[in-house]
Amino acid sequence: MASMFGIARNRPLQPATLMQVQVLRAIAAGAISLHHAQWDAETLQLRSGHSFHGWNPFPWSAGVDIFFVISGLIMVHASQRLFAKPGGAGLFLTRRIARIVPLYWATITVYVGLGLLAPSLLNQSYLEPWFVAAS
User: Cα-Cα-Cα-Cα dihedral of 49, 50, 54, 60, to 10°?
Assistant: First the structure.
């Protein structure tokens, strides 16, 4: 079983990186990004009086489902050493918050800054107080 995950027999048991699965997750994230980018491009083009025809040979929004299924698999795989350990759930949550919250706040800060400096580049107002507070 150890060789199935690419783990050497003489090394301490550590979760493998599952590189192929990570590549699939990156492709799914790219599909989501392309879907959103096309929607935003269409909105901005229509606002300027031009037409826009998106490239849709694939159901890009399916990337959301694929991304979250793969992310769940990776979280379970990477945290398998914490299962049934005292304090394991708290450690898992602490690590997740430390990884996600700073990036999320940085992204919200960029969008608010963009909304203040160049609101015409956004397809909707992100500066409404309820929206910023909810974020």
Answer: -30
Sign of the CA dihedral running 35, 39, 44, 45: positive
Contacts 24+ apart (CB under 8 A), 55-59: 58/31
Tokens of 57: 């040979």
pLDDT at 1: 46
Determine the Cα–Cα distance for residues 123 and 42; give it in Å rounded to an integer.
Answer: 9
Mean pLDDT value across the chain: 81
- Beta-carbon contacts of 61 under 8 Å, excluding residues fewer than 6 positions away, are 31, 32, 35
If you ran DSSP here, which 8-state letter would residue 123 be given? S
Q: Please check whether residue 54 is in contact with residue 45, taking contact to mean a CB–CB distance below 8 angstroms.
A: no
| C-alpha span between 33 and 52 (Å, rounded) | 17
CB contact at 8 A, 73 and 21 = yes
Residue type present at position 49: G
pLDDT tens per residue, range 89-116: 899 999 989 999 999 999 888 888 888 8
pLDDT at 9: 53
